[in-house]
């Protein structure tokens, strides 16, 4: 499969050319592993957030993939190196390959199964008939069990076809229902899901975003115009499966959520190593760094003027989605509901050796830590919600946007005053235990776009 056909999108476009000293690069043939590794070393020494921790002595006689890993600090799970003409170097996931995601659930009676939590609208999974809430008991001839989790993930990432056994719960037993086969193919963009919800005598706007693709701003205007036209008094933003993407699109969303973010208003701070320094951007600067099809002034015409926003999160919420949570806080009350976010408070560039055409490797190292204007950041362990709620407490899973869906229902309880938004209230149901399987937001397609 050609690079351009892979279900994999790097959501930032800035290209740096890093050239090592001429005398060093001439030591090895262009494109050889040693030459590639030398380029990686010089590039990382200049841009990597933890450049001062790169070993002074390295072994160039390794594959570039292994060499790049040897340069990373222990806790860096996001930086990655990819060879453009080798699809096998691209990290894959069930979401990028097949267009859905799942968690493994074990109930109090030891019943264990994979629960489909999201399906991209235009995806192989959707075309195969998978739906949110489907129960999977077998994947590629592997029974779903706690012991098989790693085997299952290896099978998924290494397969072009998934053979799934779908079951249903009846009288606390799993009953086989049907078999489904899903082929790895392209998944296209997930449409926005927006609704106006009636709650008592008020109206609440609900917006679900699967990711922050570049150029999203124009699509955001219509639901916000509807929210504004319907005079909603509350806004619920569902980012539970949003692994991030473009900061420009995240900035566009923030600018629509509150009218306090005007042109020139400080919004985001990037802090790098001694070479990168500190970069401060206003909301309109952050917006302008993406390929948007609408002007900032036109966008702001649809902005709301609410005192508070309710944001639904999970362990899949990361990167630009966490920027929305953290960077709105200086301007509007943010009430977070659900589970703790992943904790990706860093941004990366695309770095390529443009001086050596034979070098096909591209690296995506973490370069900046991200903060809001109050210098608040460092949420590497995730951002804690005000109200903790377990999405899997009640099965079957309800459709996203349904007032009966667990996390949305929890948000509505906060809005109506039936649950305190000031207390970290555990509403986890002990009958279910979730085994977290590789959060989608850990994947490198969710890197944040940053400006030069």
Automatic annotation (TrEMBL):
Keywords from the UniProt entry: Hydrolase, Protease
GO BP, sorted A to Z: proteolysis
Any GO molecular function: peptidase activity
Record SUPFAM superfamilies: ClpP/crotonase, PDZ domain-like
Domain (PDZ): residue spans on this chain: 79-168
Keyword Membrane found: no
Domain of life: Bacteria
Record-linked InterPro entries: ClpP/crotonase-like_dom_sf, PDZ, PDZ_6, PDZ_sf, Pept_S41_N, Tail-specific_protease
Full protein name: C-terminal processing protease CtpA/Prc
């Amino acid at each position: 499969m050609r690079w351009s056909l892979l279900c994999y999108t790097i959501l930032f476009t800035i290209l740096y050319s890093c050239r090592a000293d001429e005398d060093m690069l001439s030591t090895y043939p262009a494109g050889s592993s040693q030459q590639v590794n030398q380029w990686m070393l010089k590039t990382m020494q200049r841009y990597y957030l933890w450049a001062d921790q790169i070993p002074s002595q390295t072994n160039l006689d390794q594959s570039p993939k292994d060499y790049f890993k040897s340069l990373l600090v222990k806790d860096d799970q996001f930086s990655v190196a990819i060879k453009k003409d080798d699809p096998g170097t691209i990290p894959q996931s069930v979401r990028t390959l097949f267009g859905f995601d799942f968690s493994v659930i074990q109930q109090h009676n030891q019943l264990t199964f994979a629960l489909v939590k999201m399906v991209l609208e235009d995806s192989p999974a959707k075309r195969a008939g998978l739906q949110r809430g489907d129960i999977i008991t077998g994947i590629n001839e592997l029974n779903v069990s706690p012991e098989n989790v790693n085997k299952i993930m290896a099978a998924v990432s290494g397969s072009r076809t998934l053979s799934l056994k779908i079951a249903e719960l009846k009288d606390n037993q799993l009953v086989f229902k049907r078999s489904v086969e899903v082929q790895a193919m392209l998944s296209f963009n997930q449409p926005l899901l927006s609704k106006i919800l009636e709650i008592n005598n008020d109206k609440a706007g609900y917006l679900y975003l699967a990711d922050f693709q570049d150029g999203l701003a124009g699509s955001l205007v219509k639901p916000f115009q509807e929210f504004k036209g319907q005079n909603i008094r509350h806004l619920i933003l569902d980012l539970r499966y949003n692994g991030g993407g473009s900061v420009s699109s995240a900035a566009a969303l923030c600018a629509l959520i509150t009218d306090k973010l005007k042109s020139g208003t400080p919004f985001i701070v990037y802090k790098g190593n001694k070479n990168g320094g500190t970069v401060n951007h206003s909301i309109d600067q952050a917006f302008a760094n993406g390929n948007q099809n609408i002007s900032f002034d036109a966008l702001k015409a649809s902005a709301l003027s609410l005192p508070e926003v309710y944001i639904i999160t999970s362990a899949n919420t990361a990167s630009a989605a966490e920027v929305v949570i953290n960077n709105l806080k200086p301007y509007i009350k943010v009430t977070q509901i659900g589970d703790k976010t992943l904790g990706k408070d860093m941004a990366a560039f695309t770095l390529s050796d443009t001086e050596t055409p034979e070098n096909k490797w591209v690296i995506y190292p973490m370069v900046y830590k991200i903060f809001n204007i109050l210098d608040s950041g460092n949420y590497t362990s995730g951002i804690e919600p005000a109200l903790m709620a377990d999405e899997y407490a009640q099965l079957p899973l309800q459709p996203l946007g349904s007032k009966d869906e667990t996390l949305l229902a929890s948000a509505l309880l906060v809005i109506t005053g039936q649950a305190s938004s000031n207390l970290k209230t555990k509403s986890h149901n002990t009958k279910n235990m979730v085994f977290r399987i590789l959060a989608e937001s850990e994947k490198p397609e969710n890197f944040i776009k940053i400006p030069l």
